[in-house]
Amino acid sequence: MKKLLSLTIAAAMCCSTLAFAEEVTESTGLVVAGGKPITLIGKQVYKGNTAPNFKVVDERFTKVKLSDFAGKTVVVSVVPSLDTGVCSLQTKRFNEEVANLPDNIVMLTISNDLPFAQKRFCKTEGVESIKVLSDSVWRDFGHKYGLLIKDMGLLSRSIFVIDKSGKIFYKELVADISTHPDYDAALVAAKEANSL
Fold first, then answer.
1. What fold does the segment set 25-195 form as a domain?
2. Structural domain boundaries in the chain
3. How big is the CA angle at 148 (ends 49 and 150), to the nearest 5 degrees?
4. Catalytic pick from 14, 15, 87, 122?
5. Most exposed among 1, 81, 153, 179, judged by the fewest C-beta atoms under 10 Å?
6. Which has more pLDDT, 68 or 14?
C-alpha cells in the first residue's frame, strides 16, 4: 500500500511539473473584436525576431512548414475565417497582388478553417495564385505567433513578411479584427525585404 501511495504521489508531481512547463502565454489589450478586447494565446513575435518554424496543412491535409520556403521572402496573410467579408476580400486582394511581385516571393494565407472549406472557397472565388493553408489540425502557427483567439479558436487578423534569412521584416497585428490590414504597407515591405 505504501509503495502504491508513493507511486501515485510521484505520478501526480510529474504531471503537475509537465503542466507547469507547458504554461500558456496570453496577451490582452492588443486586439478588439466587436469593440471588446480579446485575449490572444501564444507568444508574440516582433520585427527582427527569427520567424518561428510552424506546421500547417494544405487542402489535402499534407503538412506544410515555413522551412519549406527557406531562402525566399514569405508573406503570411492571416485571417480569422474565409467565410467572412473582410477575410474573403483580404485573401482575394493578395491573390491578385501576386502577379505584381517577383517570383521568389511566396504568398500564404493561413486561417483555422478546415481544408475542405478552404478548397471550396478557393474554387468558388478563383483563388489560385497564393497558397491557402489551415492551422486547424495542430494550432501550431497560432500558438507560435501569438494569434490564437481565446475561446473562439480563430486566428487574429495580421500580416507578416519574413525575409530570405528567416527574420520577421514586417508585422501588422490589426487592432480591430473586423477591419482591413494595410495592404500597401505590407506589399512595400515584401518588395523591400526581397531586395535585401
1. Glutaredoxin (3.40.30)
2. 25-195
3. 135
4. 87
5. 1
6. 68
Please report, as a single letter, which amino acid is at residue 41.
I
Q: b/e map of 6-36 (b: 16 or more CB within 10 Å)? A: eeeeeeeeeeeeeeeeeeeeebeeebebeee
Q: What is the 3-state secondary structure (H, E, C) of 129-172?
A: CCEEEECCCCCHHHHHCCCEECCCCCECCEEEEECCCCEEEEEE
Q: Please give the biggest Cα pair distance in the chain.
A: 73
- In this prediction the pTM is 0.88
Determine what percent of the chain is predicted with pLDDT higher than 70.
88
* Residue corresponding to grid cell 497585428: 173
Rg of the chain on CA atoms, in Å: 19
Residue 87 is among the residues annotated as catalytic for this protein: yes
Supply φ then ψ for residue 13, to 5 degrees: -65, -40
